[in-house]
């Protein structure tokens, strides 16, 4: 029972990270109808930038932890957002009115570019950092000595996720930008005719998605203590699975899906086998797309003849 | 109404979530005759069509197709391609669905896919160049050529279908549907977007299909000149239900029909008619 | 119509210059931010595990300057060519000249290929490269059936390649079966998997189909890695027997082929044999595809790509049509995999990554329009291009990624810009790529 509870906590934390990445997938799919294959690698870049900023700040002699965390977070978000913007401008915008295959292949190409860019720029080896935030709380100690722990990092991840979700939900439902996004999702042509700057709205969608992915990268770095150039590929697929599971196009769905995938992965590793945990994630993707393509919170589509 | 019925629609109902698009619709189409399904926009005509041709699964009711040999097929239970293949019901689409990257001839060859597949021994005989298949292919090309000639597109047999003018594309789509040698041809607004001359040619084509080949035709149409000229029987729908049926003359003078199209109610229509038109 | 006065043109040109400079400056600024940390600060884990870093601002400056210059060049090109784009750059006369060449290109290429081992007999490197190119040509032709003809987006083609390779490897090393027995088995097994993988994805469209096939490919790779008792896991399967010349071994023993023919043994013999083997397999793939295109099943594949709903309305069973496309493509992938196993003598999961699927897909898309010649040329270009990067593997994938993006922007329908009809009454007219659908969209 205690083991279960611990896995529950771990799963939710991992799920929060996946959820943040998944939001980027679902937003982009909702507004331009494409799977942004490069999004997982944007997450990876975010992690790298966080790592580098971290190193610089520490070597500059800063010791105030909250300050360091805040600066790293903001810098990672800002620069990764710029990466997201650049990727959209270079690889997707020219293809917006092209054939359906084109943006996807371009995205795959961009994914390769990002992966190998970081490998070339930073070397192929995994980058570890010493545990930065230590400590936590013992929630419960059972008779046979098993301890349920809630680490400070885990608390931080969940709180950051909740705060970002709140900001983001407000952004989508209350601001002009959010309204424009929803309009473009429904009918781009009409939105344009009504004065919405479609190009800018789409760019902002990518930018926001990238910023959230950067936060996920930053928290991944803190939680696991390392980044490597290949972490975007698998995390990307899992996050996309989360987006589909929750219902593509639905933001709460993305977060819900993320939590679900995080829990499934954690429990699978804990109770079945660690080696096949990725297989489990991929299999879920296949099962969901075949049997439940609209996901948990999505809207069903009727084929028009 | 006497006559051999090829299509019998009985209490057909179609629901989408909370919306009832078609409610307890019953009508029939006679063999070797042209039946038109008309009504204002949103009446549910295309929904009925999609139910008959297998693109929607009806929520209730039955659709029976009676072949020449007496065999009765329940269409509401068949899935998409089987309706064309087994029940021999062919259709065209409101937004023309040709194969734009293939030539007119290729389009018509694809229509004969099932016959050719059988002749090619599920491809294997064809792969080794068996004479049986080559003959079947020649016959298929002949049938396609025949239809291209009928619709006046023979000189463009090797042109890409996507390059055809709108009116030509419509005729090509009908030719393609006829290449499946159907018992019932369903046409979804075949005259849409055609000018007067093209509409007249379409009427001629459909009449010749009925007269020379004996194919039964069911069509949805808004162009009243075509409907009135070629239909043997008209069924009128509004808001998902049948409001009138009969010969073109009967339907034309029916106040319910006029009211539906004008958006007025029946008494006003009668008043207008009696007041002199 | 009044002519445009000179003054306006001159003014617009200088305004153009300011615009170009501003835009390039902006690009350079963006590049600066992007590269500042990722390139400017190089981290490395030291011997004690501690992470250290050093700065490389010189390289950042070089990159930014490059972006600035490149941006100016692109803007100037864009102004010169005009909004029409590079495709219209080729005037019609040249285009028809190119199609004339096209008619003779394929036979010429074939003759040249047949003579490669003769021309380059002693250049092992070239022969190996040629075998590699032909392997990818065959993979491209196999995937072409699925993507180019039927319009089904398959991102996991490497799975069938792996099934073929591991089938032969395991059957040969465990049961000692000969290559010629295992080859058809590899194809059948791969085709079987093709149907198995195809069944669940039948209703999926476009992007979803792509990612599910990607997931399948990855699952197969992960299973191979983890099922160590069967597949040897990450260590792979070593000691795969080389093929024999229909039973006669190709070595320098007394009953070897060299001894039988009375000529001196040379290891090149095996290479030449392998070359003609893959050439034969590839040509078989090509021949079958061309014939299938002219048969109802091939036409149905292309019709499926053009408009699936219309296919159903014509009574075509789209389910079996899609499954046959998957199975046929998978079968050829399986053959190629078996060949790969016997050529290498050793296989491991590392050869069957998503990158391979993406590479083969890129070859098919670059080739264009389901065209056999296009795929062959694209394979030659891609693999040849890859070879230039030998020793610079990471840069290779980086350039590959950029090439994919550029190809999509410049020529998304591929090199060959037209489709040839499969049946005609009077004249076979090439159909422009603008009209042909790309499928499942």
Automatic annotation (TrEMBL), chain A:
Keywords: Amino-acid transport, Cell inner membrane, Cell membrane, Membrane, Transmembrane, Transmembrane helix, Transport. One of its GO terms (biological process) is D-alanine transmembrane transport. GO terms for cellular component: plasma membrane. The chain crosses the membrane at residues 12-35, 42-62, 68-87, 99-118, 153-172, 202-223, 280-298. One of its GO terms (molecular function) is L-valine transmembrane transporter activity. It holds the Pfam family BPD_transp_2. It is found in: Cell membrane. The keyword Transmembrane helix applies. Belongs to the binding-protein-dependent transport system permease family. LivHM subfamily. PANTHER family: BRANCHED-CHAIN AMINO ACID TRANSPORT SYSTEM PERMEASE PROTEIN LIVH, HIGH-AFFINITY BRANCHED-CHAIN AMINO ACID TRANSPORT SYSTEM PERMEASE PROTEIN LIVH. This is Branched-chain amino acid ABC transporter permease.
From TrEMBL, chain B:
The keyword NAD does not apply. Coiled coil: none annotated. SMART domains: AAA. One of its GO terms (molecular function) is L-isoleucine transmembrane transporter activity. It comes from the Bacteria. The keyword ATP-binding applies. Residues 7-264 form the ABC transporter domain. Keywords: Amino-acid transport, ATP-binding, Nucleotide-binding, Transport. Pfam families: ABC_tran (PF00005), BCA_ABC_TP_C (PF12399). Involved in beta-(1-->2)glucan export. Transmembrane domains (TMD) form a pore in the inner membrane and the ATP-binding domain (NBD) is responsible for energy generation. Belongs to the ABC transporter superfamily. This is ATP-binding cassette domain-containing protein.
From TrEMBL, chain C:
One of its GO terms (molecular function) is branched-chain amino acid transmembrane transporter activity. It comes from the Bacteria. This is High-affinity branched-chain amino acid ABC transporter permease LivM. Residues 20-115 form the High-affinity branched-chain amino acid transport system permease LivHM N-terminal domain. Its main location: membrane. The keyword Membrane applies. Keywords: Cell membrane, Membrane, Transmembrane, Transmembrane helix. It is a multi-pass membrane protein. The gene is livM. The chain crosses the membrane at residues 20-39, 60-81, 101-121, 133-163, 175-196, 208-227, 271-290, 358-382, 394-410. Pfam families: BPD_transp_2 (PF02653), DUF3382 (PF11862). InterPro entries: ABC_transp_permease, LivHM_N, LivM-like. It is found in: Cell membrane. Coiled coil: none annotated. One of its GO terms (cellular component) is plasma membrane.
């Amino acid at each position: 029972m205690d083991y279960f509870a611990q896995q529950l906590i771990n799963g939710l934390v991992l799920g929060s990270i996946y959820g943040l990445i998944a939001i980027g997938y679902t937003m982009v799919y909702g507004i331009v109808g494409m799977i942004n294959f490069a999004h997982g690698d944007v997450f990876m870049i975010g992690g790298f930038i966080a790592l580098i900023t971290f190193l610089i700040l520490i070597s500059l002699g800063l010791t105030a932890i909250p300050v360091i965390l805040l600066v790293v977070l903001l810098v990672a978000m800002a620069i990764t957002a710029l990466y997201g913007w650049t990727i959209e401008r270079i690889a997707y915008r020219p293809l917006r009115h092209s054939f359906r295959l084109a943006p996807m292949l371009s995205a795959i190409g961009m994914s390769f570019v990002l992966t190998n860019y970081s490998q070339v720029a930073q070397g192929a080896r995994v980058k570890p950092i010493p545990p930065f935030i230590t400590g936590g709380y013992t929630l419960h100690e059972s008779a046979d000595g098993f301890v349920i722990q809630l680490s400070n990092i885990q608390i931080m991840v969940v709180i950051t996720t909740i705060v970002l979700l709140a900001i983001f939900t407000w952004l989508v439902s209350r601001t002009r930008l959010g309204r424009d996004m929803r309009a473009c999702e429904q009918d781009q042509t009409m939105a344009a005719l009504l004065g919405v700057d479609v190009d800018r709205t789409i760019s902002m969608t990518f930018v926001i998605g990238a910023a959230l992915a950067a936060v996920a990268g930053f928290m991944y770095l803190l939680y696991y203590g390392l980044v490597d150039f290949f972490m975007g590929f698998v995390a990307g697929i899992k996050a996309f699975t989360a987006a589909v599971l929750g219902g593509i196009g639905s933001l709460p769905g993305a977060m819900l899906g993320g939590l679900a995938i995080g829990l499934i992965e954690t429990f699978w590793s804990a109770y079945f086998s660690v080696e096949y945990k990725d297989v489990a994630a991929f299999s879920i993707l296949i099962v969901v797309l075949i049997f439940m393509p609209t996901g948990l919170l999505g809207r069903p589509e009727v084929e028009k003849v | 109404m006497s006559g051999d019925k090829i299509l019998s629609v009985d209490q057909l109902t179609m629901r989408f979530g909370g919306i009832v698009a078609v409610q307890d619709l019953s009508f029939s189409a006679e063999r070797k005759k042209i039946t038109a399904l008309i009504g204002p926009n949103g009446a549910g005509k295309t929904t009925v069509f999609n139910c008959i041709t297998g693109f929607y699964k009806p929520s209730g009711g039955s659709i029976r197709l009676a072949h020449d040999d007496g065999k009765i097929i329940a269409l509401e239970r068949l899935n998409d391609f089987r309706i064309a293949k087994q029940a021999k019901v062919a259709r065209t689409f409101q937004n023309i669905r040709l194969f734009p990257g293939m030539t007119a001839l290729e389009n018509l060859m694809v229509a004969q896919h099932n016959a050719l597949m059988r002749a090619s021994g599920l491809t294997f005989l064809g792969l080794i160049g068996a004479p049986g298949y080559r003959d079947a292919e020649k016959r298929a090309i002949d049938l396609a050529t025949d239809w291209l000639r009928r619709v006046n597109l023979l000189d463009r047999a090797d042109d890409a279908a996507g390059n055809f003018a709108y009116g030509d594309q419509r005729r090509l789509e009908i030719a393609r549907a006829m290449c499946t040698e159907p018992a019932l041809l369903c046409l979804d607004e075949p005259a849409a977007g055609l000018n007067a001359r093209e509409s007249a040619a379409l009427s001629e084509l459909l009449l010749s299909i009925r007269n020379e080949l004996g194919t039964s035709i069911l069509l949805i149409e808004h162009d009243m000149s075509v409907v009135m000229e070629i239909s043997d029987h008209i069924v009128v729908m509004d808001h998902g239900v049948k409001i009138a049926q009969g010969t073109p003359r009967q339907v034309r003078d029916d106040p319910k029909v006029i009211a539906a199209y004008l958006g007025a109610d029946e008494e006003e229509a009668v008043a207008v008619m009696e007041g002199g038109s | 119509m009044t002519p445009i006065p000179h003054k306006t043109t001159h003014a617009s040109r200088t305004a153009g210059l300011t615009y170009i400079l501003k835009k390039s400056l902006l690009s350079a600024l963006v590049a600066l931010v992007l590269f500042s940390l990722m390139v400017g600060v190089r981290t490395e884990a030291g011997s004690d595990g501690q992470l250290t870093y050093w700065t490389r601002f010189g390289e950042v400056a070089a990159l930014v300057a490059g972006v600035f210059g490149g941006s100016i060049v692109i803007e100037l090109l864009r102004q010169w060519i005009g909004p029409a784009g590079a495709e219209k750059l080729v005037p019609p006369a040249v285009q028809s000249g190119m199609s004339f060449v096209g008619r003779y290109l394929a036979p010429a290429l074939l003759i040249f290929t047949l003579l490669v081992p003769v021309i380059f007999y002693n250049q092992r490197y070239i022969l190996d490269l040629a075998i590699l190119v032909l392997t990818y040509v065959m993979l491209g032709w196999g995937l072409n059936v699925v993507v180019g003809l039927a319009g089904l987006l398959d991102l996991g083609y490497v799975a069938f390649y792996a099934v073929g390779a591991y089938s032969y490897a395991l059957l040969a090393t465990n049961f000692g079966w000969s290559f010629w027995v295992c080859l058809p088995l590899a194809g059948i097994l791969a085709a079987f998997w093709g149907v198995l993988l195809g069944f669940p994805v039948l209703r999926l469209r476009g992007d979803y189909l792509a990612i599910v096939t990607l997931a399948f490919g990855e699952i197969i790779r992960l299973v191979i890695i983890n099922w160590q008792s069967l597949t040897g896991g990450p260590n792979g399967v070593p000691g795969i027997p080389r093929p024999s010349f229909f039973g006669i071994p190709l070595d320098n023993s007394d009953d070897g082929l060299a001894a039988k023919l009375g000529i001196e043994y040379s290891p090149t013999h095996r290479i030449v044999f392998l070359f003609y083997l893959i050439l034969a397999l590839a040509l078989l793939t090509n021949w079958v595809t061309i014939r299938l295109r002219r048969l109802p099943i091939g036409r149905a594949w292309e019709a499926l790509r053009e408009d699936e709903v219309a296919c159903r309305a014509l009574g075509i069973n789209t389910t079996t049509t899609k499954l046959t496309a998957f199975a046929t493509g998978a079968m050829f992938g399986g053959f190629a995999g078996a060949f790969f196993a016997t050529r290498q003598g050793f296989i491991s999961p590392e050869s069957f990554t998503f990158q391979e699927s993406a590479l083969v897909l890129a070859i098919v898309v670059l080739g264009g329009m389901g065209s056999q010649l296009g795929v062959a040329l694209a394979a030659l270009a891609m693999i040849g291009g890859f070879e230039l990067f030998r020793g610079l593997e990471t840069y290779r994938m980086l350039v590959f990624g950029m090439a994919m993006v550029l190809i999509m922007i410049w020529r998304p329908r591929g090199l060959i810009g037209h489709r040839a009809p499969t049946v005609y009454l009077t004249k076979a007219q090439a159909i422009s790529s603008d009209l042909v659908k790309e499928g499942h969209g």
